[in-house]
Amino acid sequence: MATYVIYQGEVTDPDRYEQYKAAAAGSIAAAGGRYLVRGGEVEVLEGDAPSGRTVVVEFPDHQSALAWYRGEQYSAARELRRGAATARMYLVDGWEGA
User: How many domains does the chain have?
Assistant: First the structure.
């Protein structure tokens, strides 16, 4: 069952964040993930708009997503993000009926 990494972040240093985006993209591809949402315009249907940027990445399963997050390549990318953005990131398992 697919697992999704959902990231919401507010960029505070755009130049450094661009470095993070490139490093993160490489780590995601290497781990078998793929972007479903990468920024983009948000239209609020209910409640408050999320602040900043929203990204959704699909991985084949929960273990693959955790291995990517804890892996060496993404750990290095996270260091680039430190000081360039504040973020919330979490895993959500897909629905088996999909």
Answer: 1
